[in-house]
Amino acid sequence: MKPKISLLFLFALVFFISGPAFSSGRISRPETARIAITGQTPGREVKLDMEIASTPLELERGLMDRTSLGQGAGMLFLFQYPAIQQFWMKDTLIPLDMLFIDEHGKIINIHRNAKPNDLTPIPSASPALAVIEINGGGAKLHDIRAGDIVHYKAFKQP
User: Fold this and answer.
1) Total domains, the chain
2) C-alpha distance from residue 138 to each of 15, 85, 112, 131, 133 (Å)
3) Which of 37, 40, 54, 83 sits between 20 and 30 A of 17, alpha carbons compared?
């Protein structure tokens, strides 16, 4: 009989502690921002609406379990310092293009149409400070290329 009481007590304690976090709004979607990506050809610019993932939980969850992503939308993953970044598609239900970005906002490399639920690591070609995920095929649709510049306050730009 004692194990049942202990288990019930533990469940009640976890519910009591976690309840306020959800109801107070502390666990929510990341902040959002509109970013611009400019090409090497004058006049080529794309504007995208991004969710900004910067907390450990946001960076871990990313776009997992989403069944769709709006056109012109995506997620910008910001890390504390540049490093070789590796992503995978565990629990990601839609194909994505991944844009790996250096500390100056320059797109280092693009991985196109990452397969949903694939556990194969997808690395940056060199140290990246950020990664953008958009709908699979979005890089081609918007003519986004390696060498283009992402404009956002986190990047060291003139």
Assistant:
1) 1
2) 41, 21, 9, 14, 9
3) 54
Range from 12-26, 45-59, 132-146 carrying the lowest mean pLDDT = 12-26
Q: Are 54 and 78 in contact (CB under 8 A)?
A: yes
- The pTM of the full predicted model, rounded to 2 decimals, is 0.81
Q: Which domain holds residue 47?
A: 28-151
Q: Tokens standing for 105?
A: 């906002």
Asked whether residue 68 carries a pLDDT value surpassing 90, the answer given is yes
With respect to residue 146, please indicate whether it lies within any of the assigned structural domains: yes
Distance CA 71, CA 103 (A): 26
Q: What tokens does 17 get?
A: 């502690």
Distance separating alpha carbons of residues 32 and 73, to the nearest angstrom: 10
Q: Cα–Cα distance between 5 and 8 in angstroms, integer?
A: 5
Residue 99: inside a domain, yes or no? Answer: yes
Separation between Cα atoms, residue 145 and residue 110, nearest integer Å: 7
CA 99, 107, 150, 80 torsion-angle sign = positive
* Stronger pLDDT, 158 or 48, i.e. the higher one: 48
Return the pLDDT at 42: 84
Coil/strand/helix, residue 32: strand
CATH assignment of the domain containing 57: 2.60.120.1140
